[in-house]
Amino acid sequence: MAISIRSRLLYLLAGILVMTVTAFTFKNNKPATMIDAITEVKQALDGQVAAWNKGELEKAMDFYWESPDMLWISRNGTEKGWQEVLEMFKTDFTDRSKMGDYTYEPLHIEQVGPEAVYYVYRWKIDLQGKKLMGGVSSQLWKKVNGRWVITSEHAS
Asked: What angle do CA 89, 87, 147 make, to 5 degrees?
């Protein structure tokens, strides 16, 4: 059975339509929802840094998962629990004058699940023009109750 020219043209047009729709659905070879998640996490980290630089430690902590299962990893070992990490920060940074200015440079970001983003960046905190501390952090961000929060961070 021979396929008519009209049928071939319809198949060709259908193929072109599918490719066009696919091209608009993906940006940078990633689905639009992945681009949205990555953008939202980048904005959330910017919000956390802005709160830190205003001396608003509790507001900066709002970007962490408020759970006893939140994990903080550093050179000193691990801390588990949002409240425990907040207390650690309050001990280290008793007031705004000790918090310094936080800056960072993104190194790697990828969506690792429908509601999970892995973010790696170089960071530093300057105090009165001198480097107070810095290193590389990796964070696991998850969407919990409709908002992106850090559920685990490894700062070194």
From this structure: 80
- Main-chain phi, psi angles of 41, to 5 degrees: -70, -40
Check: CB of residue 83 under 8 Å from CB of residue 138: no
Structure letter (DSSP) for residue 4: P
pTM, two decimal places: 0.77
Question: In this structure, are residues 121 and 136 in contact, taking their beta carbons and an 8 Å threshold?
Answer: yes
Structural domains in the chain, sorted by start: 31-155 (3.10.450.50)
Q: Give dist(CA 117, CA 124) in Å, integer.
A: 22
Q: Is there a contact between 22 and 122 (Cβ–Cβ < 8 Å)?
A: no
Q: How do residues 86-128 score in pLDDT, each as one tens digit?
A: 999 999 998 888 999 999 999 999 999 999 999 999 999 999 9
**Residues linked to residue 136 through DSSP beta bridges, in sequence order:** 122
User: Quick one: which H or E segment has residue 8?
Assistant: helix 5-25
Find tokens 């960071």 and name the residue: 123
Cβ neighbours of 40 (radius 10 Å): 15
Q: Which residue has the tokens 């430690």?
A: 57
**DSSP for residue 64:** B
